[in-house]
Prior knowledge:
This protein is α+β, with helices and mostly antiparallel strands. The chain has helices spanning 3-38, 72-77, 97-103, 167-188, 192-211, 216-225, 406-420; strands at residues 41-42, 50-51, 65-66, 93-94, 106-109, 111-127, 132-136, 141-146, 154-155, 160-165, 231-235, 240-245, 252-253, 258-263, 267-275, 287-292, 299-312, 317-325, 336-352, 357-358, 363-368, 373-384, 388-393, 400-404.
Amino acid sequence: MSRTARWLGACLSLLLVTGALVTSCAKHDGATHTAAAAAKYHCPMHPTYVSDRPGSCPICGMSLTLITAPTDADTAHGAGGTSSGAVEGHAVVELTERELELTGVRTATAQYGELASTVRTVGEVKADETRLRHVHTKVPGSVERLFVSFSGQEVRKGQPLLALYSPELLATQEEYLRALQASDRAKDGPSDDARRAAAEMLDATRRRLELFDVPADVIARIASTRRTTRTITLDAPVSGFVSAKEVFEGMQIEAGTTIFTVTDLSRVWIEAEIYENEARHVRVGQSARLTLSEEPGKVYTARITYLYPFLDTDTRTLRVRFEFDNPGQRLKPGMYANVELQGEHDEGVLVPNDAIMDTGVRQLVYVQTGDRRFEPRAVTVGGRTGDQALVSSGLEAGESVVVQANFLLDSESRLRAALQAVPAATAPADPHAGHRR
Length: 437
């Protein structure tokens, strides 16, 4: 080979090596600048604060930490992922040892077991509507005298309430007296038809007095004395309390006017309201425990006697009713009672109530899938007690769920999902892109 050829070959080799080095440096510089430009830092205690350079959080002064790039698994479980546990708008969170210590994350193990559906609510003592008696008159008249002075007064069955003067009632008494006289005359007469007609007239006038609620003893007294009575006394139909008094002495009243309402409190209702999602746990005949604030430590047992067929549209609650015998009237309308209903036992995966986060759109938990790795998981809650929740789908027994600091994890999860959603086109352009040869 000639000297010229060897010289040309050496030059060509040198050019090739130089070109390769330049290209490699250009690629390395571009990647380094892109990575540096895309690096983000945030505060572990205030994840919403994000900076493009390291430093301190202006809120709490804590050192900012680098937001690590999401792995393929994180992306699959985060926003837009297709994993069965994916939660839209949330991403998997992986913490450093320092972050795990600062956040105070605590977990509990989901276990399979039984959940007794306990419904707790507050009931109110009310009068039994079937034991209310309205006292009214069937004839117009005026109140000559009142024997009950005020509402709330206790009365006994048959106790006089008022004396009523009624011209119409007085006229009916006189008709009854004339019918009595006609019947007496017909008894001594020869005509059977006259006796029959007199008897029918007597029965009709007596029946009219009965329809006007004239007591039987008053009718018998009119017949024996052959004298009318100026006023008729209206008596209490049941024993109880006067819950409404609508008249005063000398007052003119019309037929059908309600004069008194007497409430029999020997048996009362206790009505309670339960939330819509608890309605499936109650049924007629179901037993309940009731306690009264005025009798601490004493427990009453009752059964549901009625479920109202509609919900309150304002409170979204269903009313249930219990019935109680009330000797001595110790239970008074308006009192409150604490009600505890024991529902049926359901089986499933149980977790502490603190593990469940309700976003308003869905319910989710954070599952620990590694030493410092936490995955958001959408779940369906089938029931709750005071401290436990039954998860019917989305979680398996044996998995660890976060029960403390899950709100901090949720903030971090949302932030990472938002950063993952930023399109790649928003990254700064490669500064060497126009200088490559």
